[in-house]
Structures are given as structure tokens and as C-alpha cells.
Amino acid sequence: MAAELDIDFVRGQFPAFSEPSLQGQAFFENAGGSYTCLPVIERLERYYRQRKVQPYGPYEASRLAGEEMDEARTRLAAMLGVGTDELSFGPSTTQNTYVLSQAFRQWMKPGQAIIVTDQDHEANSGPWRRLVESGIEIREWRIDPETGMLNVRDLENLLDENVRLVCFPHCSNIVGAINPIVEITAAAHAAGAFVCVDGVSYAPHGFVNVGDLGPDIYLASAYKTYGPHQGIMVIRRELASLLPNQAHWFNADAPTKRFTPAGPDHAQVAACAGMADYYAALAAHHGISGDAAVQTMGVHDLMRGYETQLLQPLLDYLSEKNSVRLIGPRDAQGKAPTVAVELPGPGAEAAEKLAAHGIMTGGGDFYGARPLTAMGIDLEKGALRLSFVHYTSKAEVGKLLNALDDVL
């Protein structure tokens, strides 16, 4: 295996880096959505040109359309270490989570409890919190107001026999800290509760083996993992069999359709196979062999190793700035490269100034009003968020640091 990620090979897989309109711009708002890799674009275009028909019919275009949709599901499930019947596509993770919350509302009894955090993106918080209207108790696992971190001991104090579900992020889109899924899941399972992990902010930094980590639900968004705008949802069989069908009555026995009543975009599902193509290309180029799950974890480690090298100088720089408050860990090993800072003024104003330096980033609350409020940050002011992924170059990080010198 290659010791380091080949950044030139990586960037060659993304048309955005040769796009004239983007030249001279360094992209640091990847937490809001990533560039799309070439295999996804090619598959999406092919589908719209050749196969944009109702899939699974007897004629050739329809047969090929269905086969490519099945390919996406089969390959992504293998990459994530779960069964093909345990992976569903939906219009978005927000929609998928809302549908799941309705299934739990029907399944749970009044007085039973769900634990949520105040570290989450609103998509994995709001839908569950609304269930209080149906008599379900909502317990909040709260972050440390200084660090933004979750403490597993605090969770253990909330767990008892009434808790049926624990919801938390793999990492927050504000705090960026990587939460210990295995430890949290073990504590929840020991108390008889299921686990729902929002992986949207972590998955861009490498798909994980959900089967090994153990959560009952794992959510991701393809448009942040170099693909089209689809939600990817893993629901393990044991839990899926307990929850009531949310789709058409005739789909009640179809595991991949029971929790996506609206139905996904056929072309985008098919194009999701391009993400598997991209991972396979990275694995082959870097000499990573094995089955899909092994290759995926090898690519994950390459991505994380490279990102960590780029992240630490940025964290060190911001930690030394008295004029800013760096949110979350200072050590890149425990943090995804999603870096939010509180400034004396509005984050959006700083983002606008950075844009003049060729830095594409954003300011605001990023649907993370709860963690910002918990840490005492004025929502009117919000935060500046700097986020990158494995296709970001060292030169672009250097450009960001130079621009921050001028703006801060």
C-alpha cells in the first residue's frame, strides 16, 4: 500500500479542478456538499441519455436502468459491510430521518424514551424531538458548553429500560469531534436501546464498516461523498423487521422500500455506483487489495491520514489567534477537517472577505443552532466554517492561511 494519498491522481478524478470558472478558487465549504467525481457524472449522463425510462421492465433500456440501480445498492452495501437488503436510498438524509421518526412514533409506546444530543445537525434532532407530541419522552445528551464535546458517562446517566433509541452524530458539522461509535453503541445496546448514527459529516472523510461499528441505523448523504443528491440509509434487519411499513402497502415486504415512501431519483441512485467506481480506482492506484469492505477501509485510512496532516497546521494557527474561538478539538487525530470558529463579528462577513481572496467558505449556523446556542454563541453572529476533504491540496491550505492572516 502506498504510504500517502496521491493527491495528483485524486484531483484528476474531479472535473471541477479543470473547470475554467473555478480556477483560482480554493474550496473550503465541503461540509455543505462536495465536488462530484467523474465516474458519478459519467453514469448520471449515461442514464439520462440512454436509460431514462421506468426501470425493471422487459425491454433493454429498462433492464439496464434497473441493473445499474441494483449495482449501486449492492456495491455500496458491500463497501459498508452490510447486507444489500439493509441499504436504502431516499431523497435526502433529512427526509429519511423524518420517515424513520414516524416509524418509531408508531412502534413506541407513550412513556418510552428517545435520547438525542444538542451536538447534532437539526436533521438528526428535530424529527425525534417532535415525537414528544405523541407522548414519547425526549432526553437530551448535552455537550460540554466550553468544548462542544459529548461525554459517554453523561449518556450512561440517561440510559434506563425505558430508552428505545439513542441518536447522535458520528461527528458534528459544527464541532467536528469524532464520537466513539463502538463505545456509545455498546452502552446503548446494553441498556436495550437501538442506535441511530448521523454519519453525514463523517462519511466524506471515508466510508466506514457499519457492520463492524454496530449501530442499527447509519445515515449518509451522497452529495457530500462525491455523488448525487441522495440520502443513503442503513437499517439493520433486526430493527427494520420491528418497525411498521412507511411506504405503499404492497411494499411492506420490500426491505429497501419500506422506509422511503417518496421513492428516490432513479438516475441518481444508478449514478451512486460511480462512488464505488471511485473508491475502487483509489484502491487499485494505491495497491489496496481485498474485498470491497477491506478496500473501503484502506481508502478511508488513506483519506484520514492525508487530511490529518493538512488539518493540524490549521488548528495550530487558529488556536494561537486570540481574536477567535476555535470550536472542538485542537488535535487533528480526533477531529474531522470541519473547523468552525467564533469571531468578534458575523461569520458570514468573514466568509465574504475570504471570497475576495479566492477562498470559498461560509458563515452562519449551518443547521447547527443547538450546539452553537449550547456553547453560548449568538446565532445572529453564527460561526465561520472552514471545511475540506481529501482532494484539498497543501497549497490550498497555505492559501487559506494567508487569507486568514489578512481577514482576521
TrEMBL record:
Enzyme class: transferase
Enzyme Commission number(s) from the entry: 2.8.1.7
Matches recorded under InterPro entries: Aminotrans_V_dom (IPR000192), PyrdxlP-dep_Trfase (IPR015424), PyrdxlP-dep_Trfase_major (IPR015421), PyrdxlP-dep_Trfase_small (IPR015422)
Highest taxon of the lineage: Bacteria
Record-level Gene Ontology MF annotations: cysteine desulfurase activity
Aminotransferase class V domain mapped to chain residues: 27-400
Keywords: Pyridoxal phosphate, Transferase
Short name of any one Pfam family annotated for the protein: Aminotran_5
PANTHER family: CYSTEINE DESULFURASE, PYRIDOXAL PHOSPHATE (PLP)-DEPENDENT ASPARTATE AMINOTRANSFERASE SUPERFAMILY
Identification of the protein by name: Cysteine desulfurase
Gene assigned in the entry: sufS_1
